[in-house]
Amino acid sequence: MTQSLINTGGCVLGAVDASAYAQSVSSLGGWAARRIGAPLELLHTLDRTSGSGAADLSGSLSLGASDQLLQELADLDARRAKLAQAHGRTLLEQLRAQVLERHGVQADVRQRHGELVETLLDLEPRVRLFVIGQRGEHAEGAFGHLGGNLERVIRAVHRPVLVASKDVLPIQRFLIAYDGSATTRKCIEMVCASPLLKGLDCNVLMVGAEDAARRQHLDWALAELQRAGFTAKSNIVEGTADTVISRHIERSNTDLLVMGAYGHSRIRHLIVGSTTTHVLRSSLIPILLLR
Q1: Which domain holds residue 127?
Q2: Count of alpha carbons within 13 Å of 171, Cβ hemisphere only?
Q3: Is 0.90 surpassed by the pTM of this model?
Q4: Which end of the chain is less packed: N or C, by CB atoms within 10 Å?
């Protein structure tokens, strides 16, 4: 276990939009930036459709339609685009003020044109941790569904992703979903190598029937965490992974869930399977996805 397991350079980048998740993304970003001693940047993206509400009618206008109508439509789109930019700048400034007040962190803000995933991939070389909302402004009312951008981001980027729930409580205890695979063993090592969660209460959860193999895996995880200074507890619980994890979060008052984003176990299918699954869709707490 070495510091090379984690990227120790770069910023915490929070991707925000005009949704109810904007404040939780910026607040989690401020919390994370302060704990790891990294700069914070808040990003608002304007895609090709931002501010555009008019359809392209050039092919359906009659031959007698004047050029003036086409010009008015173009002007309307231009005004909408300017309003979208102004709204984005106002949002960023409000969030920057809130992060400074709540966490004492001075955030840099930026607004860029382009698709979110492509923008994040372009910025990734100088990013240490991404923070993104569970749902965006076009899906925030659809409980049980993920924002389309979130799923694409999880699949595309290679840095850790901190997924913000709508309500973020002070984070005092976290749960690691662990199955003994190489992927989740690396999660344990990354938690140990990073200052992000140091000093917080830790619990390690394995799903399945208790046996010697699972107990051996848990003993290894606990030893690694304790060597890194964590006071860690462990549980082995029978059942299906999504149900057991969700129930354990509720009963233990967990504030943050840590999971592996890739792997070949059931944990992988909870995150990047062919369909989005129960844990990420229904979680009421933030989730830290590690690679």
Answers
A1: 3-50+84-164
A2: 29
A3: no
A4: N
